[in-house]
Each structure stands twice: as structure tokens, then as C-alpha cells.
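Hey L., structure's done. Input below.
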Amino acid sequence: MGIFDKKKSISRYELGKTFRRDKGYIKGGEGKYSRTEREKLHKDIFGPRYGSQIDELEYKRAIRGLERERSKAKDIKQREAIDDKIKYLEQMGGRGF
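Output:
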């Protein structure tokens, strides 16, 4: 079940808690994220510019920002790393991502 399957928005604190509790497996990707990697991912992507509540639109906007970053990446390894982040975030978001 995803984050936005039942709720329209979630506080940034709850989002961080959700990232910490998750197993970190990436569907369709290789490997998994450790707890520290998930916390760093949360802080990097959903930093202070998003405010206290994050809704589905802002979550999708963050994924689109990663997609733009992926298109600008020069190295294949960077693109694969960003691809894994995108897959993980879409998986966490729930249906409709």
C-alpha cells in the first residue's frame, strides 16, 4: 500500500517516519536502500522548500525533478542511481504513480 492511497496529504515528519520503517526494496531495480540512504533520500528530495505538509501533487513534482536531473546526467551510473530513486519513490507513492 502506498502513502497516498488513503490520504490526500501527509506531514513531512510522517513521510520521514514512513521512509524509515520501509524495507527499502526497489521493485524492478537492483538491491535495496539502507535506512541511512532512505533518510538521506527523504532529506534531499523533500527538504525545507516543501513546507510541513506534502500532498500528492508535490510528491509527483519531486519525481519530475528527479526525471529532469536524470536527463541532464552525463554518466550512465548516475542515471541508473537516479532511476532507482524514481522507481523507489513511485513504489512508495502507491497506485497512480
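The chain is about 60% helix and 5% strand. Residues 9-93 form one domain.

-- N.
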